[in-house]
Amino acid sequence: MPKQIYKIEHFHGGLNSNSDPRDISTTELSSATDVMVDEVGSIRTIGNIQATYETLDNAGATVTEIAGAGFFQFDHDRTGAEDAGTSEDETGDSYLALYDDNDAEIWVYSKAVTNWDDDVAVNEHGVITFDGKGTSGAAKPVFTSIDGAVRVSSGEFAKYDSGADINDGSHFLTTETSFAVDDGDGTTDDYTLSVGNYIQIDDEILYISGKSTNTITVTRGMFGTKVAQHQDNAQVDILNMNQWYGYLNDNFFQTSVGESEYTTDKWYNEIQHLRSLDELGITLALDDSTSASPDATALAADKIIVSHWLSKDGFWNGSYWLGMTPVYIGGQEGPISTIGSDTIQMNENVLNVQLYICHPTIDNTAISAHPLKDDRIIGLKLYTKAYTSDEWFLLKQFDLLEGGEHGWAEYTAGDVDQTTTGFWTDGTVDGLSSGIAADLADTSPSLDSYEPGTAVVKVEPGTAMGAGRKGILRVSGFQVSPLYATVDLNDATTQSTTLNVVNPGPGTKKTFVLEVLDENYDVLYTRQVEKDIADSGASSPDYPEDAGYGADGGGSS
User: Fold this and answer.
1) How far apart are CA 152 and CA 85, in angstroms?
2) Helical (H) or strand (E) element with 109
3) Mean pLDDT for back-to-back runs of 10 residues, the chain (557 residues)
4) pLDDT at residue 387, rounded to an integer
């Protein structure tokens, strides 16, 4: 057989030194030294490690390099990666990321700026910060660039002494969520315990969700570690976490298409770990909104209220938990957190759910920071599981970026103006039963059985629910049933709707059901009205569906 030329042009499979060379993929390498294969179709040399970089040191960072580690090149379609937190143009740039073992920070240098400038003052931090102490040559961070973001593994970083020991005067009990330390602000040590740090005490890993000088508030038993009792003077270690660095450009809580209440347009550094809402310090509360929307007293920073109410003729039976996960960019989810401390009991019901999210500062109309504390969170998923089950099922997804005709809006509770409190609702404003009323007038000309005529239904929304909002009036109990009409949800006054009806059969306390539905047919309000129907002696008529029964007109009174 004549020889053939086989062209090998893809090497992005990386190094595979565990397999026989005959068994590796054509995209893999069996041996590679000082080369990079991060670009499809090319092999590039890493280069040599030198003691100093004259052009880089000019920028102000006195860098202590680690031979063979801590140096990475990447490209991005945004400029300005050398300065975290800035908004930049989409003009493209090339970068060098350099780890400084002197302060355990990553400095990023731009090719587009003269002399590979980092554009950061000498007294500022590197753009990627491990919130950790340098380990004098032991740290060997590993970089990768994917999906437009740089990820930095802490390599050989290990836990280190924060210099702050427990100072409670007694044990830190398993039931406690806060403790005192003797040096929370780094007075006698170079580094400070900060919100967002993961710490380790003995064998338990904890997450710092709050801090006030020397008082530390934590979430216990992280990463499956066992919650344990700790002695006074126990050492508090800080754990270095893998880092994420990338560009964010999103519009959150759009009240209409293109109009948002919070935007991100910046380079952003955060730990790589996808935290749960519990880990982020977000309170998840259930609110039974059967008779009223969430009360103004329920407002609190760092809180999500999941209001729920039930309607009839559904398929939910039993007791159910609700849970929620944050959705990060790329569609990844954090762990599920249980909502509230109790289940919802249902018996042949429909479960209606509405979401409210608080501002970080509930007394300010401006949203200056992400309400869920991580700018990478772009959505939420609601899950449910039976009381006796361990398996969660997806119930609903909330897109924090989505707008539209009836997008997110501020919340008004009853007579208390809460437009500055920062409640946000998925598609409606005050969209529950609070303030809504409905009544059914006597039918005309009589209440005799099987008598055709008209009935007047009065609906009072009580609160204007947003421009253009249209609801649905559904009336059941007549011979031809149910009957439908339109309700203006943005009109708080009483609205009268006249329906062409046929009375039901004779009987005392015949039940008529009045329901107000939103655009998604979620029940906002329900009421039962009882009427006595006299026996007219007539037999039950047979009316075709297109006989013209239903809304005959409407107006306000």
Assistant:
1) 18
2) strand 105-110
3) 70 78 79 77 67 46 67 90 87 86 79 67 68 55 88 73 81 91 60 78 88 87 88 87 91 77 91 88 88 73 86 86 96 94 90 82 72 94 93 91 70 40 32 52 79 86 75 89 88 86 90 83 80 87 60 43
4) 92
Measured distance CA(13)–CA(28) in Å, rounded: 4
CA dihedral 417, 422, 426, 429 (to 10 degrees): 10
Sequence-distant (6+) residues with CB within 8 A of 282 are 302, 303, 304, 337, 372, 373
The DSSP string of 431-471 is -SSTT-EEEEPPPBS--BTT-EEEEEEEEE--S---TT-EE
- Short-list 526, 527, 534, CA closest to 509: 534
Nearest Cα to Cα of residue 365 among 430, 417, 404, 295 = 417
DSSP, collapsed to helix, strand or coil, labels residue 517 as: strand
Radius of gyration of the chain, Cα coordinates, nearest whole angstrom: 32
Residue 262: what pLDDT? Answer: 86
Our CA angle for 331, 332, 337, nearest 5°, is 120
Cα separation, 119 vs 153, in Å, equals: 24
Give the separation between CA 156 and CA 144, rounded to whole angstroms: 16
The answer to whether 385 and 318 have CB atoms below 8 angstroms apart is: no
Cα dihedral 475, 344, 326, 274 in deg (nearest 10): -170
Q: Distances in Å between the alpha carbon of 206 and those of 3, 149, 195? A: 63, 27, 11
**DSSP code string of 372-399:** TS-TTEEEEEEEEEETT----EEEEEEE
CA–CA separation, 63 and 57 (whole Å): 7
Domains of the chain: 1-47 (no CATH), 160-239 (2.40.10), 282-425 (no CATH), 437-556 (2.60.40.10)
Strands 283-288 and 303-328: parallel
* Beta pairing partners, 457: 440, 497
Instruction: Kindly state the DSSP code that residue 293 receives in the 8-state scheme.
Output: P
Q: Which of 513, 509, 515, 528 is nearest to 447 (CA)?
A: 509
The predicted structure's pLDDT at residue 221: 87
